[in-house]
Write a structure and sequence with these properties.
InterPro entries: PTS_IIA_lac/cel, PTS_IIA_lac/cel_sf. One of its GO terms (biological process) is phosphoenolpyruvate-dependent sugar phosphotransferase system. This is Phosphotransferase system PTS lactose/cellobiose-specific IIA subunit. Keywords: Magnesium, Metal-binding, Phosphotransferase system, Sugar transport, Transferase, Transport. It comes from Tolumonas auensis (strain DSM 9187 / NBRC 110442 / TA 4). By secondary structure, the chain is an all-alpha fold. It has one domain: Phosphotransferase system, lactose/cellobiose-type IIA subunit (Methane Monooxygenase Hydroxylase, Chain G, domain 1, Up-down Bundle), CATH 1.20.58. Helices cover 85% and strands 0% of the residues. Helix 1 runs antiparallel to helix 2 and helix 1 packs parallel to helix 3.
Length: 105
């Protein structure tokens, strides 16, 4: 298991990168660049999976017994992960709507 600080930073960095790529995908979709948007969403998903994998390692190490020290930065990392997951889900839907709208024109 990696160092706790390293794990927390892994969540923050990967979740942040995922969220940034999602918003770039949304920007591309607004411009009608759907291939680029899909590529960015796929890349975002890779970073999201990495952040989630680190979170899963922490959960497994804790074994539901409170073994993992909870810190403010840990809470911050969880916030980053959850907001990036929500952004990915919503932006994926928005990109699909942009595609549907473009197909009607």
């Amino acid at each position: 298991m990696m160092d706790l600080e390293e794990a927390v930073m892994g969540i923050i960095v990967n979740a942040g990168q995922s969220r940034s790529l999602c918003f770039e995908a949304l920007h591309q979709a607004k411009q009608g660049q759907f291939v680029e948007a899909d590529s960015l969403l796929k890349e975002a998903n890779t970073f999201a999976r990495e952040a989630h994998a680190v979170q899963t390692q922490l959960i497994e190490a804790d074994e539901g017994e409170g073994k993992t020290r909870m810190t403010l930065v840990m809470v911050h990392a969880q916030d980053h992960l959850m907001t990036s997951i929500l952004a990915k889900e919503l932006i994926t839907e928005l990109v699909d709507l942009y595609k549907q709208n473009a197909a009607r024109i």
